[in-house]
Write a structure and sequence with these properties.
The chain is mostly helical.
């Protein structure tokens, strides 16, 4: 007795067994006889961006410093590291204080560097 008598059948192209017409895999040999028909996946994009930038002027965590204040502090009190303390660089200020402005060389270098900075510059 044939088990596929009430529905339409086809023959497997690999083993020749009778299989249902809508079968994707042969029931006898187990090989794939048709390509799988898949629906394309539904992609739902829900992009509700409500972020707000609250940085003042686009500089987060930095402090503006005046170029000329730093220049004159370096010129007059550079051996004490006053311009480094003004910028908030406490470690460098202590180093300048203990070495008298990195033996004078640090003061000269800092004067030149400060002159080429924009006004105000950000530390």
């Amino acid at each position: 007795m044939d088990q596929f008598t009430d529905e339409r059948t086809v023959f497997c192209r690999y083993c020749g067994a009778k299989i249902p017409e809508d079968a994707v895999v042969c029931t006898a040999c187990g090989r794939q006889v048709k390509a799988l028909q898949q629906e394309p996946p539904q992609v739902i994009i829900n992009n509700n961006n409500t972020n707000q930038n609250v940085n003042a002027g686009g500089y987060a965590g930095v402090r503006p410093k005046d170029k000329w204040v730093s220049f004159f502090l370096c010129l007059l009190l550079g051996w004490l590291g006053a311009h480094k303390f003004y910028e908030g660089k406490i470690g460098m200020g202590i180093l300048y204080l203990l070495t008298l402005g990195l033996f004078g060389v640090g003061i000269i270098v800092d004067l030149i560097v400060i002159l080429f900075k924009p006004n105000p510059y950000f530390v």
